[in-house]
Design a protein that fits this description.
binds flavin-adenine dinucleotide; 37% strand; Elongation Factor Tu (Ef-tu), domain 3; binds nicotinamide-adenine-dinucleotide; 6-stranded parallel β-sheet; alpha+beta; Rossmann fold
């Protein structure tokens, strides 16, 4: 307790330790970083192998161990945010003393750049599949009981399938089950399930296979990736969202997050680009949210409307943007988020640059 810390030679490499009682084994990771949260620790346990990936800024600290004895499937993760201590509590199947935690597996106790870690997949069960529009569905996947994985706002995961003998991997952005203005902390459901809103392309490589999955089937889901940081919206006053087609998906959690957690927020405006009326995702929910929350406004822009006069027509353009991007007050703190087909995003970013918005004021969602 009274140890004097020598801060001059402070080693920032995380370390770990473990201890046990008759019933429990607790693995403790000292990340040596403040501001840890639940999204930064990914835990998996499969076939007696424990894998704990702690994401510390751009680095990953991995524990990867073949446990000495069997443990139960329900694993608890505690995070002491201020001191950066992570505790993983395992329940022994047999109440016998362990002489060691287990055998190290590959990359155990390594601290490397996240980009060098490679993706890790676990199999998730398809729980439900519900229609959103004529070609888009919500896929609800259940994580294994022993997996702890929470996808941060604006981040995506990868799905992997073997198609005609080849491994194919594609990114998808988890959404919430609905747009709700009473969203507070992530619910229990959020940490045990992943909800994906996916458009099925009849001639596509990956999505028709996905559409063939039956309830109860399994699919491989990776850890998450993404460049969006909550700090980008922390003291925000105006948020503008430019979404095209399924480029709407990162906006879902973002909307729920900012409307409940960012108290400085004055306006959130979504400009949603689609081909036809029938392609608009969650139109009803968006309109309901706009009625309920006066800070939120939505505009629909159709590139191939079926009927005349049902709202604005066209594609992304400089004039459309300059009319839309009105600050709630002079010099307000603002962010513009863009997501959609690559040409849409490219053009959007170019128009915004030409209109004088800085790099810090624009975020593009990409892989
Ligand atoms: P593809 O085989 O890629 O084909 C897509 C369409 O293009 C089809 O209509 C096909 O006929 C046409 N096409 C294919 N090749 C050609 C060609 N050579 N010339 C002309 N046309 C062609 N999608 C979602 O639905 N939901 C999400 O949440 C989501 N999140 C994403 C997050 C990120 C970070 C990124 C980068 C993409 C995301 N996507 C999302 C898109 C997703 O990753 C896939 O690209 C999408 O599902 C298409 O998959 P596919 O293999 O079925 O179609
Ligand atoms: P879509 O083909 O139905 O088009 C929707 C709208 O996008 C159109 O109405 C039009 O306004 C605009 N658009 C399309 N092509 C354009 C072009 N060449 N130039 C300017 N505007 C154009 O869209 P979709 O099939 O739903 O595709 C959505 C796209 O969003 C996919 O390419 C997907 O990869 C991407 N996406 C990316 C992320 C991400 O990076 N995080 C997340 C989700 C979706």
């Amino acid at each position: 307790k009274n140890k004097v810390l020598d801060t001059s030679s402070k080693d920032l490499t995380p370390s770990y330790d473990w201890f046990q009682t008759d019933y429990l084994v607790t693995v403790v990771i000292y990340t040596k970083q403040k501001g840890m949260n639940s999204e930064m620790v990914i835990v998996d346990h499969q076939d007696g192998r424990l894998r704990v990936d702690s994401i510390l800024r751009d680095y990953s600290y991995l524990l990867h161990i073949e446990l000495s004895y069997a443990v139960q499937e329900d694993i608890t993760v505690h995070i002491a945010e201020k001191v950066g201590k992570v505790e993983i509590v395992l329940k022994k199947k047999d109440n016998i003393p362990w002489s060691k935690l287990g055998q190290p597996l590959n990359s155990h106790n390594s601290f490397i750049k996240c980009t060098d870690r490679g993706l890790y997949y676990r199999k998730c069960k398809l729980i439900s599949k519900t229609e959103v529009t004529h070609d888009t569905k919500l896929f609800c996947l259940m994580l294994p009981q022993s997996t702890h994985l929470q996808v941060p706002v604006g981040h995506h995961i990868y799905l992997k399938q073997i198609i005609a003998g080849t491994e194919i991997v594609k990114p998808y952005t988890p959404v919430s089950c609905s747009l709700k203005s009473d969203f507070k902390e992530p619910s229990h459901h959020d940490s045990t399930h992943l909800i994906l809103m996916i458009k099925i392309y009849p001639n596509g490589l990956f999505t028709p296979e996905l559409d063939h999955l039956q309830i109860g089937d399994y699919i491989s889901v990776s850890n998450s990736e993404g460049s969006f940081k909550k700090s980008q919206v922390q003291t925000l006053e105006d948020l503008f969202l430019l979404a095209a087609g399924t480029g709407f998906t990162p906006m879902v959690k973002l909307l729920n997050y900012v409307l409940t957690n960012v108290c400085s927020l004055r306006t959130v405006k979504l400009m949603f680009f689609n081909k036809t009326e029938d392609d608009i995702l969650w139109r009803n929910q968006l309109e309901q949210l706009a009625l309920k929350d006066k800070r939120f406004e939505v505009q629909f822009i159709l590139s191939e409307p079926k009927k005349e006069g049902t709202g604005k027509q066209g594609k992304i353009s400089s004039s459309l943007l300059s009319d839309f991007l009105k600050r709630s007050k002079k010099d307000s703190k603002l962010l513009i988020c863009v997501c959609g087909p690559a040409p849409f995003t490219e053009q959007g970013i170019q128009f915004l640059q030409d209109l004088g918005y800085s790099k810090e004021e624009v975020h593009r969602f990409t892989a």
